[in-house]
Automatic annotation (TrEMBL):
This is Anti-sigma factor antagonist. Gene3D superfamilies: STAS domain. CDD domains: STAS_anti-anti-sigma_factors. It comes from Amycolatopsis mongoliensis. PANTHER family: ANTI-SIGMA FACTOR ANTAGONIST TM_1081-RELATED, ANTI-SIGMA FACTOR ANTAGONIST TM_1081-RELATED-RELATED. It holds the Pfam family STAS. GO terms for molecular function: anti-sigma factor antagonist activity.
Length: 126
């Protein structure tokens, strides 16, 4: 039986100091090191806010959730506004089941996530 996996894709864009990290496709243990790199690197640069865009993520496992928590903790430690956009069931539903939707700054779409970080001042993290 052949698996129908969707290859992971990562891209980073910056607009007015807000870094958006796009993470698409299937994310799992094999992609966690790359995911960690792309999600944490904006915090070591000049980002005024960070949005993790997982709206095109088709699968993720628990290792992805640990990276999301790690990136949120980094945002809190540095006082950088941070939001996660995760509309698909592949991400939003497991986060809800684990109760992480009550801890992480989770939004249903990229526009909502960007609006959330734009509305926060420096040092104010959702």
């Amino acid at each position: 039986m052949t698996e129908n996996r969707v290859q992971p894709r990562f891209a980073t864009t910056t607009e007015a100091g807000v870094v958006t990290v796009h993470c698409a496709g299937d994310l799992d243990l094999a992609t966690t090191p790359r995911l960690r790199d792309v999600l944490l690197s904006p915090f070591h640069g000049s980002a005024s806010a960070v949005v993790a865009d997982l709206t095109e993520t088709t699968f993720c496992d628990s290792t992805v959730f640990s990276v999301l928590v790690e990136s949120y903790r980094e945002a809190l430690a540095r006082g950088i506004p941070y939001a996660i956009a995760a509309a698909k069931t592949a991400v939003a539903r497991p986060l809800a089941i684990l109760g992480l939707d009550r801890v992480l700054p989770l939004h249903t779409g990229i526009a909502e996530a960007r609006a959330a970080v734009a509305g926060m001042g420096a040092g104010q993290v959702s």
